[in-house]
Every structure is written in structure tokens, then in C-alpha cells.
Amino acid sequence: MDASIKQSTSRPVVPREPDRQFLTFRLAGELFGLDIANILEILEYQHLTEVPLMPAFIRGVMNLRGAVVPVVDLSARLGRGALPLGKRSSIVIVEAGTGDEEGGQPVGMLVDQVDAVLALPASAIEPAPQFGQRLRTDFIAGMAQIDGLFIVLLDIGHVLSIEEMTLLATLDYSPHESCNDKPDPGRPARDA
Amino acid sequence: MNLDQAIQAFFDEAFELLQQMEDILLDAESTQSDPELLNALFRTIHTIKGSAGLFALDGIVGFTHQVENALDRLRSGELTLNENLTSLLLRCHDHVKAMLQALVNQSDGPDEASQAALLAELAALTATAGGTPASEPEPATATADTAATMDWLLYLGFGPDVLRHGLDPASFLSYLATLGEVSHVIPLLPGLQAGTAYDPEQNYLQLALRFRGETTLATLHDVFEFAREDSHILIAPLAGAAATLARNEAGLGDTELAQVHAHWLTLGMQTPDEAVAASPDEPEQAADSGAQSAAPLAASVAAPPAGSSNPKKAKTAEKAGEGRFIRVEAEKLDALINLIGELVIAGAAGNLLARQHGAMALQEWSQGISTLIEQIRTGTLSMRMVQIGEIFNRFPRVVRDVTKELGKDVQLDIVGADTELDKSMIDKLGDPLMHLIRNAIDHGIETVAVRTERGKPARGTVRLNAYHESGSILIEVSDDGGGLHRDRILAKAIDRGLITADAALTEQEIFALIFEPGFSTAAQVTSISGRGVGMDVVRRSIEQLRGTIQIDSTPDVGTVFRIRLPLTLAIIDGFLVEIGKATYVIPLEAVIECIELPEALRDASHADHLNLRGELLPLLRLASFLEVPAAENARQNVVVVRTGDRKVGLVVDGLLGEFQTVIKPLGSMFSHIKVIGGSTILGNGQIALILDVNELVQHVTLRDSARFSLTHDFAMLGISSQPTK
Questions:
Q1: How far apart are the C-alpha atoms of B374 and B368, rounded to whole Å?
Q2: Do A61 and B687 count as a contact with CB atoms less than 8 A apart?
Q3: d(CA B192, CA A174)
Q4: Which CATH number does the domain housing residue B11 bear?
Q5: Whether residue B583 sits in one domain with residue B472
Q6: Domain co-membership, B658 together with B682
Q7: By CB neighbour count within 10 A (0-12 exposed, 13-18 middle, 19+ buried), where does A91 fall?
Q8: CATH T-level fold of A19-171
Q9: What distance in Å separates the CA atoms of residue B490 and residue B362, rounded to the nearest whole number?
Q10: Less crowded by CB within 10 Å, the N or C end of chain A?
Q11: 0.80 exceeded by pTM
């Protein structure tokens, strides 16, 4: 496990009704939360193999103990631009929905930094506001109040929907695309 | 023992036996009743019945018992195997299979009515043959096959050369003594007479002996297996000895025969009259010696009748078969292969560390480990390989049924059934092959009338052939039928709007049109060709296995469907290249050679082609194609690859050498990028992508034809309305 995960020991957890636990992490300073039920493991950033001809939000594939796992740049996926790598960059492996009943497949999620695991009572979670989050509303599972601040709890089933990402990747790419002789505006030039 | 496991083993065994039964039945149609086959046939059902009894599967026991009766009378010669009987037995086979299948699926069994009908037909057989076999199980072979303590008479006519061949008559005797009791031995020395020259290397000794033991005729014959070649061995149960001698199957000379007769009499042989007189006491033996029924009691070694001596041998062969194969769950094997993949990577990491560390002993040790790991991997992967005969074997039945249904006369030739292929591919090949075979019979082979008119043999041939060729496996389904009608296909394709009327197509391309969805030239849809799987599905399933399918056809001579498949789905020999900063794998089977990119061609602004010893080689710059920044200062190289029958040069930034790689799928998210066929994990744990050379070239061809076309020029000039083609 990454050393940067700190269990929140400060607040005593009294199980009135079962609290839900959330991992908080940062993307370019902005705090997000994710239900840990979705999370398989958290890894330090490791080398990714870029897959050419893919949209920018797919950073590449990584070797997860012999399995080839795609890694999504969460920041790019949320429409906030590609995430620069930092010292504390981490990859959160989550179970992404495939749309069918088969169960999920592991997908890596590149984030700036993982923060903490918080237990939140259901009462601390509010529904998403209609606007103002600079996010697709279907990406938001709810808003949680933490130390007076509201953070977005992501709906990972939508954010990392394999079906939707496959569709986007397919649309982004067509055999005739490069016949225009101009760079695709949707794809920022990759720095090597 | 876990009962579930045991019953699973029973199912596996039963299905195997049923397969055997089917094979024999189909075989017997052509070879006619070879007693050995009939015995084997009997054994299949007999074993199923026995095993089913262990699990108290009364339904199966009851039905198989009736089938067994019929088979028993078949092998005793009361019935002969004709087409009707074969059909009936095949249907019985299907019925037993359906019953078993129902048990496996825990669903309802086949309906009672069909069983009743089959039983009625079986009973009818019994009635016409006029016997009551059920009350008289295995009458003919009882004495020969079952081990009961009884007396035997033996004549061991060792030939003069046995000593020269290293055989010692004494050792036969001592071995025989382990099976029972040798009560009398009469040494005979007919060849050794006073005054003749004695040759110490020659054998003069022959023996007549009486033996008592709990054994069978076959076992006794096995004792003298080695002496068989140059000796006369006669073995008979005491009661049947006279009859055996009378038949003289060993082909003894008159004097020798008389001699044996005399000595056996001394040893207690009864004359035929005595034998009949003795029959009330020993009914079984009398029945055999007197009636001379189908399975002869005694046999000469020179020509052993299959009926009595072979069941034993076949059984030992079966035993050996059991030992040679172990059933393993496919999942366990896959898990093992995955683990070994990990081991390879871990081993490579260890190797690297050892090299960095520099200690010689450590490096040698890690080299040794690497070699072992490589061997383990090769070995494990080979476990996945199974013989393609596994699927070929179901086709004789298909051919038989389809042929009967269509009223044609077709034989199936199978060649190369022992060619090995990855198990997971075998499973997926069944349906496409089945379809091709049905098609060949339905559309390919002409009716008998037409064939005769064309001067061909009335019986058509469909041939299945499998063989290895340069890292691939080739499977051919060919027929000697009418061939594909080029013009009819063209007309149909134009009619369906698949191609334009003026399209210039090669013969191959025309034939390939039949793989288009919704294409069928058959004037009418028969029950055979309308089974839901179209040729487009055939092609798709072959392509899913990373294979290709190709057609050769000559009018009135025949058609060949040629399927080319990679040997395995799990592993390829790859050639590692560097493009930009990443490592890619090009399948080694596509690579012809590597050359350095000439200085003059470094700059990509010129036309991209190269003079390869007088041959024009189009170049594909992979870095720009894949939109990755090219490595700076790289000494670029050209990898010459083969696609179809053309050569293409792939420009890469570096050559890293060969690497045997385990293919890992990339997942659905990347499935639209056809130029990347999969991925693999390198020794350092990083992932390398595998390039699909065929797709790559196809893709570039498509791109260039779009880029340099009239429509593109229109677009460049700002003309939006494009003329339609």
C-alpha cells in the first residue's frame, strides 16, 4: 500500500447505522471522494505502456501481476486536462462496470495523490446539485461535507463505464482520420 | 472417494466409449464384421452397463442390457451387421448418449416412446434370429475368456532355431508353472536320432504337457508369445483337445500331428465320442467342442482366432491407454500457465539483478534457473496441445447422416488427425468445420447421376486434411465435386449489391465473396444448408482464432477450403522492435529480414519506398503512423515483413531481437485498434504491444487510397459535393 494513505483515527466511529467509507484523493488540488467498496487496491505510480491511437484520457496499460490493466487519466476523463505526473502520483485500481452482469474488470485510475479513508454516516451525504460542479451530473454520486467543505463523491460506474469509454475511443479513432493531414484537436500532443 | 468426482469420471468414460462405439459402427460399415471389432463393440456397451450399475443408474442399465444382448448375438454370429442393424445401433447409441446427457444436465431424459420403439426393434431382431440370448450370457467364449480352474493340454513344438534366437524352453516352463500346476511333461525328441550329426546350437526338444490352472486360453498363449514365430504351439482345454487337433490350425505335418495325438491321449485327452458322452457333466466345454461354435476354444499360435484371444489383449491395451492420459481441468492448466508467465518475468528480473551484482557464481546459478523455467514453460504450453482428431472424429457420423439424407454417395477421408493444436482452438473449430463439410456434401458433391455423366466415380470424396506448415497449422476441407461457379457468384454479388458490375476482381476475391453475410448461391435452401450458420460466420470464427480462410476451386474438379491458423492462441514467437520509447512486438513468422534504413531515406518527406535488391519495397514509418514521437538519433532500421504474397518494409527506431511471448488480451476498450493484436509482458515487467502486420498494411492501404484520391482532391479544393461512384 502506498504510504500516503492515512487512516482517519481522529474521529471515533460509533456505528449507529453502518457508515460508508470513502477514499479521498486529489486531482490538481481538487478533492474527490470514492466509495471504497469499488476499490481493489492502491499502487504507487509505475511505468505505463502507452497505447497509440487512443484518446488522451487513456494513459496506457500497466502490468498488474501478470494482467494487463488499462489506466485512465481521471483528470482528463473529467474534462480537466491531462494530469502531470508528480512525486505522489498514484494509481487506484477499481472494479469498473462492464455494463453486463458479468461483474467488473479492473481499471487503473491515475490520481495526483490519495488522501485519507473517511467513514461518513449516510446523513452527511447530499444529492448532487444541478449545476456548478463543472462535471457531468451522472458522474456525481453525491456531495459529502467534510470539515465544512463539500466534496464530490464520484459515481465510478459512470465515470469508468467500459462501455462508454470504448465508444469514445472508437469514435475518437477512425481509419481515415489521419487523411486530413492535421492533428486531431481532441488529442493533445503527447510529451514523451 | 468423492461420489461426484466418481460419477464425473463415469460420464467421461461413458462418452468416450460411446464415441468408440460410433467409430466402430461407422467403420464396420466399410470393413464388414471383423470379429475383433464386434468384440470391441460389445465391450463398449458392456462397460457402460457395468459402470452404470455401480451408480445404480437403472434406466441406463436396463436399456444397455438389451443393446448388449443384440451385440452379443452379433459377435456370436447369430446376427450379421447390415445397414439396418447399424442404423438401429447408431440410434441406440444416440439414445444412451441422450440419457447420459440428461443425467449430466440433470434434465429430463429422452422420451419413453423412442426408447420403447428402440426396444421393440431390438426385440424384433431377437425374434427373427429365434434365440433367447438374455438367458444365456456369453455362451461361446465362456470357457476361453473366463478364468476357471481346469485342465489344459499343451504341445510345445519348439522350432530348431529357438536357441539361436536366445529363447530357452526351460524358462517358458518355469513361467507356466507360476500360472498353475504342470502335472505331466513328456519330452519329445523326434529330430534327434542316433548317428546324425548333433548341432549344440540347434533345439531338438519338444514337449507335450498337461497343465492345471485357473487361467484363460489367451493368457496361456501370451506365455508363448515370444516363441510364436518359429514354433508350433498348440493349447487346448482337456475336453476340447480332440476337436482342436482335428482342425489342425497350426498346420502341423501329419507325422507331427499323429505324434501330438498319441501323446495327448497319454496325457488324458478324450476322443470326440468320449467328449460328447462327458457332456452332461461339463456342459460348457461340450457345447464348444461339439458344436464348434463361433469362438473356437483352442487356437494355434500361428493363426489365433481373434474371437477368443483378442479381448484379453485389447483389455491390456485399454489399461495402457488409461495410464497414458490424465484428465486435468482446463482451468487448472490455465492458472498454471499464468503462474509460469509470472515465473518467467520474476526469473528475468533475478537474472538482471545477478548480472548487476556481478558475482560469477550467482550469474551461473540464475542462468541455470532461466533454462529450467524456459523448459517448464515450453512443457506446460505443450500440455494445451491436443490432436485435431478429437474434432475430426465426429465428422464420419455427420457425413454418413447428411449423405443418407441427401441421397448422395460420399466418403470422408481423414488425413493428419494426429496434428496437434491448442485445445482452446479445437473447441472453436468444430462448428465452422462442420459447416464446411455439410456445404461440401450439399453444394459441392454432385448427385450420382451427374457424377456418372461427368465420368467421375459415383462415390464422392470429402477430404479433411490437417498439417503443419511454417509455424501455422493448415486444415483443408476439400471435395471432388462441381467446384464453385465463378460467374454465378459474380452475378449474385452484383445482384446483392456487394460489388459493382465493373469491379475487376481476382479469382480469389471472387471466391471470397461467398463469405459475405447473406450470400448463398444454392438455388434452394435445404435442411442441410439452412442450419443457421452462414459462411460469414465461418469466416468470422476463423478470424477470431487469428486465422485466415482461402478457397481454391476448379470447375468440375473440386473445391478446397484452406484454413490457416496459428499454432496456439497463447504464445507466439515475437520480434521486438523499438518505436519511439516503447517496445513493440512483430510476429516473427511475418518477418523476412532486417536492413538498415539508407541515409538518403532518413527524411520522410520523399516517397516512401526502397530498392531491395531490385525489388520495390514500400515503407511504412511506424513512429509517424502510430503518432508517437520518433526516438532522436536512432539508427533507423527496416523490418521486411510478409503480408499475403507481398512484402512491406516497416521503419522502426531499433531492433531488440527475438522473444517468445505469452499473448495477453488487451480488453474491449482497445478492440477497435485493429493494428494492435494484443500485448505481452516483457522480462522487465513492462508491457509491449503486439502489432498485427496484416491489419497494419490493410489500414495504410485504406488510408493512402483515401488520401490520394479524387474525392480528397475535391475536398482540398473546397468542393463539398462529391460525385458518387
A1: 10
A2: yes
A3: 97
A4: 1.20.120.160
A5: no
A6: yes
A7: buried
A8: OB fold (Dihydrolipoamide Acetyltransferase, E2P) (2.40.50)
A9: 68
A10: N
A11: no
**Same domain? B640 vs B577:** yes
For residue A25, the model assigns a pLDDT of: 93
Domain ranges for chain A, please list them: 19-171
Domain around B100: 3-135
Q: Which amino acid is at A35?
A: D
- Name the residue among A53, A165, A170 with its Cβ closest to that of B626: A53
Contact status of B676 with chain A (Cβ, < 8 Å): yes
C-alpha cell at A33: 471522494
Chain B residues close to A181, C-beta within 8 Å: 707
Q: State the distance between the two ends of chain B, measured CA to CA, in whole angstroms.
A: 73
Q: Residue B634's pLDDT is what?
A: 67
Contact map slice: A 133-162 vs B, CB within 8 A: 162
The pLDDT score that the predictor gives to residue B546 is 75
Q: Are residues B109 and B181 in the same domain?
A: no
**Residue A3 φ then ψ, to 5°:** -70, -20
- Does residue B150 share a domain with residue B126? no
Contacts with B341 from chain A: Cβ below 8 Å: 66
Comparing A17-31, A109-123, B290-304, B702-716, the range with the smallest average pLDDT is B290-304
**Residue A58 at interface with chain B, using a CB cutoff of 8 Å:** yes
| Closest CA–CA distance from residue A10 to any residue of chain B (Å) | 40
What are residue A109's DSSP bridge partners? A72, A92
- Nearest-CA distance A53 → chain B (Å): 6
Over 60: is that where the pLDDT of B435 sits?
yes
Confidence of residue B86 (pLDDT cuts 50, 70, 90): confident
CB contact under 8 A, A68 and B627: no
Contact between residue B14 and residue B57 where contact means Cβ atoms under 8 Å apart: no
Answer yes or no: do B175 and B294 share one domain.
Answer: yes
- Lowest average pLDDT, out of A93-97, A169-173, B58-62, B320-324, goes to B320-324
Q: How many domains does one find in chain B?
A: 5
Q: Where are the alpha helices (DSSP H) in B250-326?
A: 254-266, 272-278, 283-291, 306-324
Spatial contact of B581 and B598, defined as CB atoms under 8 Å apart: no
Same domain membership, residue B423 and residue B549: yes
Tell me the shortest Cα–Cα distance from B123 to chain A, in angstroms.
Answer: 52
Which of B687, B699, B709, B712 to mutate to probe the A interface, most A CBs <10 Å? B687
- B665 reaches A (C-beta below 8 A): yes
Tell whether B341 is within 8 A of chain A (Cβ): yes
Measured distance CA(B538)–CA(B549) in Å, rounded: 9
Looking at the domain assignment, is residue B465 inside a domain?
yes
Q: Residue B452's pLDDT is what? A: 86
Nearest CA in chain B to A72: B669
With respect to residue B622, please indicate whether it lies within any of the assigned structural domains. Answer: yes
> Taking the CA atoms of chain B, what radius of gyration do you get in angstroms?
35
Q: Tell me what the mean pLDDT of segment B700-709 comes to.
A: 77
| Residue B160 and residue B19 share a domain | no
Is B714 contained in some domain? no
Alpha helices in B496-611 (DSSP H): 507-512, 535-544
Which among B582, B665, B687 has the least Cβ separation from residue A63?
A: B687
Q: Give the residue from chain B lying closest to A170, CA to CA.
A: B672
**Yes or no, beta carbons of B670 and A181 under 8 Å apart:** no
Q: Find the residue in A nearest to B580 (Cα).
A: A192
Chain A interface includes B634 (CB < 8 A): no
Closest in B342, B581, B688 to A192, CB measured: B581
Residue of A nearest to B680 (CA): A68
Residues B447-473 as b/e (b if ≥16 CB within 10 A, e otherwise) read ebeebeeeebeeebbbbbbbeeeeebb
Burial class (CB in 10 A: 0-12, 13-18, 19+), A181: exposed
Q: List Cβ neighbours of B444 (8 Å cut-off, separation of 6 or more).
A: B460, B462, B479, B481, B482, B483, B558, B559
Torsion of Cα atoms, B674 then B676 then B677 then B678, to 10°: -130
ipTM of the complex: 0.76
